[in-house]
Amino acid sequence: MKNFSPGVIGLIYVVSIPLFAGVYYLTPGQWREPLTVVDSFYLSSITITTLGYGDITPIGDAAKILVSIQAVFGVTLIGLFLLSLSRYLQDRTSAQSRNADRVNMRSQYRQFREDYISHVLETINYTFEKRIVLSRKLLNPEEFKRYFGGHSEGWYEYVNELQTNERARTEARFLLLDLERNLASFVLRSSTSDAKAIEYLSNFRNFLHRLQRLNLESSDELKGFARQMYGVVAQFDLMKGYTEHDELLQFIDKA
Predict the structure, then answer these.
(1) pTM score, whole prediction
(2) What residue ranges in the chain does DSSP mark as E strands?
(3) Residues of the chain with confidence (pLDDT) below 70
């Protein structure tokens, strides 16, 4: 019964009142004088709530035992109800907190993608006004693939700039570090039992950490970095190819 909802326990509590009242009414020999229907309900109500005014008292042993059982039953149900209500409110608060964490993590991931796209456009010397417009438009992976697919020299220019522009490399690492920290904090606060979601998010965090440790002054590691970052923004996986949905967002919603 401890796992029942507050509503179920409350219903049992209320239903038990007429049930005990019916037993009291059907046992007239157990009382100083037979109880009316109203007296039976009255006695059942004050017994289960342990008020016990004393104006109606049992004289038979069976009635004494029955009244005692109802009193203990009532106290037990009240305790279980309060415990169940406390757990319900706690679970509800926890669920609201988890949902807020998910919304916040999704927002942080979106902001990372927007900031990274803006960083790419800034690195290849797009104007501020153009960066603002394009960074939001290119948040759509299809738009990103279409734009850089048709302007592949833009992505190559970004890669070349990274190799010679220390400020751009530092900014790229900082964006990755910020997302890694946010993701680590999100995983730490998560109370999900979905092991697959936690495993995926932890692996993605480790992936971000490895990217930060790459030597971007090395041509080979820089190309690997650029390829992986293109995959993150364009939702491209070397094993699966382009994916219709962002898996990171899907697992954030499950965590």
Answers:
(1) 0.69
(2) 236-237, 241-242
(3) 1-2, 149-152, 236-242
